[in-house]
Design brief:
Helix content is about 25%, strand content about 20%. It is α/β, with parallel strands linked by helices and about 290 residues long.
Length: about 290
């Protein structure tokens, strides 16, 4: 089916949203494609944050389509709409999400339509695994949002108390007892234990995932990403402070890097923090994300 036929086949009632299935390794992911009303100016993908389902990005994705771009969202394996096993039964890890699933979703994006440009938007986890991916020559621009290589000692009082509970006290005990991370109790979604333990390892290691490269993680792609990338942070983001964004920039040493540290007051916003850049109440910052770099 051609792009034009697919658009015609979708009724106005579904607002040009198409559900697709994406093969990834030995599983399948569920994604949503948000089609513009005319020929897409570009193809945009959103690699989501840890524990954040794709529906969180739906309003932003619709807005992206309204600006004339095709936009793909999806959920990582055994999570959200891609759940094939319960969080307790799943053996998924963070590297599965960041390597296999992100790569599979980008490859699916390339098959949806022949557009002039591709734009990778990575939120948190979605922003730091790209150097391991293939097809980097097919990425035209990148925007990372609230993404950093975070070390637990980066945090300051009072937020560091929550960090200690999350990495060293309450949450490790509860995750081991339940057999999965009960994310709903902390404002996220339930996740496989393997995702939590690898996330914990990286965020409690001064060199983040460096020790896993060559074992759990493959070597980074030697054909590095060389295009434009905009690294966006927020002054009120306690989870990914500026120093973690500095480390992230080091992963993109051959790219054309632009940094943007946004104070929500610039846009008369109350707060943005780590997760809320894609929330409708903070739509004032959306052009910063889409029209960058």
């Amino acid at each position: 089916m051609t792009m034009e036929q697919r658009n015609v086949a979708m009724s106005e009632s579904d607002q040009r949203v198409e559900k697709i299935t994406i093969p990834s390794d030995d599983t399948e992911l569920t994604g949503n494609v948000y089609w513009p009303s005319g020929a897409p100016k570009s193809s945009v993908i959103i690699h989501g944050a840890t524990g954040v389902p794709q529906m969180f990005y739906a309003k932003f994705a619709r807005w992206v389509a309204d600006q004339g771009h095709l936009c793909l969202t999806y959920d990582y394996r055994d999570f959200g709409a891609s759940r094939r096993k319960s969080a307790r039964e799943s053996a998924a890890t963070m590297s599965d999400w960041g390597l296999y699933d992100q790569q599979a979703a980008f490859d699916a994006l390339l098959q949806l339509a022949d557009t002039p440009k591709t734009h990778v938007i990575g939120h948190s986890l979605g922003g730091f695994m790209l150097p391991f991916h293939d097809n980097l020559d097919k990425v035209d621009k990148v925007t990372t949002v609230a993404s950093g290589l975070v070390y637990w000692r980066d945090h300051r009082l009072p937020y560091v108390i929550q960090v200690i509970l999350f990495w060293f006290l309450a949450i490790p005990f509860i995750t081991r007892f339940k057999g999965y991370l009960p994310g709903k109790a902390i404002g996220l979604e339930d996740m496989p234990a393997g995702v939590y333990w690898q996330w914990r390892k990286w965020c409690t290691s001064r060199n983040f995932f460096e020790a896993d490269i060559g074992t759990v993680l493959p070597p980074m792609n030697p054909n590095t990403y060389k295009g434009p990338i905009k690294i966006i942070g927020f002054t009120d983001d306690d989870t990914a402070p500026k120093i973690s964004l500095d480390r992230l920039e080091g992963l993109y040493k051959d790219a054309q890097v632009t940094r943007r540290m946004i104070d929500p007051r610039e846009y008369d916003l109350k707060d943005v923090g780590h997760l809320q850049a894609f929330a409708s109440q903070n739509a004032a910052v959306w052009p910063e994300i889409l029209d960058s770099p």
